[in-house]
Amino acid sequence: MSIRIRQVTKRFSDFVALEDVSLDVPSGSLTALLGPSGSGKTTLLRIIAGLEHADRGSIHYADEDVTQRAARDRGVGFVFQHYALFRHMTVFENIAFGLRVRRIPKSEVRDRVNELLSLVRLDNLGHRYPAELSGGQRQRVALARALAVKPRMLLLDEPFGALDAKVRQELRTWLRRLHEEMHVTSVFVTHDQEEAFEVADQVVVMRQGQIEQVGTPQAVFEHPATPFVMDFLGNVNVFHGRVQEGHAHVGPFQIAFHDYPHAEPRAATAYVRPHELEIERSPSSSAALRGRIVQVNPAGAVVKVRLVEDGSQNEITVDLVRDRAHDLSLQIGETVYVRPRAARVFMPEVDYAI
Amino acid sequence: MPASTLARRVDASASSAVLRDRGETSVLAMRPHPLTLQLTVFERKEKRVDSAHPVHADKQQQPWRPAPVRDDPLWLRVALIGAAFATVGGLILVPVIYVFVQALQAGLTTYWQNLWGDEDTRHAIWLTMSVAPLSVLCNTLFGIAAAWTIARFRFPGRAVLTTLLDVPFAVSSVVAGLMFVLLFGMQGYLGPMLRAWGIQVIFAWPGLVLATTFVTLPFVVRELIPLLQAIGSEEELAAVSLGANPWQLFWRVTLPNIKWGLIYGIIQCQARAIGEFGAVYVVSGHIAGQTDTMPLRVEKLFQEYNNPGSFAVASLLTIMALVMLIAKLCLERILAA
Questions:
Q1: Nearest residue of A to residue B234, measured between CA atoms
Q2: Which residue of A73, A97, A145 is the best one to mutate when testing the B interface, meaning the one whose CB has the most B CBs within 10 A?
Q3: Could you give the strand order of the β-sheet that contains A289-297, starting from the edge strand earlier in sequence?
Q4: Residues in A touching B243 (Cβ below 8 Å)
Q5: Percentage with pLDDT > 70 across chain B
Q6: N or C end: fewer C-beta atoms under 10 angstroms in chain A?
Q7: B111-336: which CATH number, 3.30.1300.10, 3.40.50.150, 3.30.70.870, 1.10.3720.10?
């Protein structure tokens, strides 16, 4: 069941939540709506579900126009951020709710609910009330409840936001595996980049009611279309300068930039990821940045080094592979040279948004 | 230890308390003097037994001695508690007991005769027992609808509507009754038109229901609005996304969530409706045997110098009020749990 969103606009009195948003969600895919607070991702999700109505625009499920259809007729499974379990019903009754309102016979209901309880690994907890469950268990009940009615698509609103890190990790893996088994078109909202990258087939980066970029996690990370996407997805070092005759002169660096071959200089900004910078003890070229090390953080898979550029107070973050860091054996206070292996250059006057 | 804690322990069955404070254990015991009721607090300090230095327990205990004064002086505590009891006793307890004393003064058979023997009194009891529940029913339906609308939706005039719902509280009940007379009476706007259709509102039971409904209007709404706002609409949205129609949504999701608040509001509404005097007085015309409710009957009997009779009906009203009070207390216990 593919979803086609065309030119959706939504206003809440003065606040524009969504501005002319269009998107295609392929059938059977797992799409992440990623962005900071206020970017409109939850509003878009609710409009897809029918819990909100757009001021303008249309929503299609495959070829059906569902824009005017009420939420209860859309056949969507929705999982809320704070679970929204029915507090006065047991886990069994919660999961059975969608089936009971469709007046499905009791034996069928019982079989289906037990099947789902096994699926979410809550087999013996059917008689418990939501208040007696942990956060992770509640979220699984919410998922089971949404899946009970065999929905055409699954929509999740920051499903793991309210859980602790370990449980979040487990549920992420579990959701991915579930999706691979069931192949229900799923859309979920998150502000956590790591979550989006780990779970989703397709990432939609949003900002202030508009879509910045759509693509696979790899495409979006390695080929960001706008400065915002680059900055939002992971740490980035920013260098200001100019472009002229096919080269970008930013900071002390000189980077090839064939998009601008003209002689007239234009302002530009280069974005370099921490792992794209190299640290050397002696400069390999004249265009190297000199800086003093202020922090070496050996935590995790990479060693994070922070430097302050000589002459200015710019802070630069470099991620080094452990072996390389070990070879260099950097000390705080040392002066070293930094060289970019790759960079993305953007010209501020150009509007990059889709 | 705060005064309130000590006060509770005066009448509690436990006569001692244990405080643990900074490695020392204080065992407190209170002995009220049998005649003067003066409280003496005795304290015995016990050092915490350290597992590294096991010593016999009795060597650690020190003899009992009067405790140092903590915060409020004893006389102040006794005076304030005494004043509270005196107020409740004098203003509430004594009059209520007096009602029963007066009612039963002429004997049990006369009491019974006063209630069931008198035809007008019987009618008054029946009238109250039909008008009050009917008003409560109207206000329950209206209350649920209004609370739902105000709590779940935003519309122009919402704040005004919420404020208007408090008007019956602010307006004197006599004024409320007069309002209905002006609207529905023969000299009023709608009176002649309704009379032409054969409907009489003022000086008849429809007027009583109307007046009682008006006066008890806010109880259910005011109870439900904050409750619905606190519960939030997420469960309802979840139910909608799962395919529930509005009726299923209300019965299966909303109603169970507001159940206790609703019952609480209904009890308050009923209690007020039974005892309503002012508005009903104006609207009813005070016709004995036809439009007298129980409070009005009490007043009429009192005017006729029939003390045992009026107190008998009053005692019945008081019993009803007490029953509802107990129900309210039980409900509060359940809500707090």
A1: A84
A2: A97
A3: A277-280, A335-340, A289-297, A302-309, A315-321
A4: 72-73, 75, 98, 101-102, 149
A5: 79
A6: C
A7: 1.10.3720.10
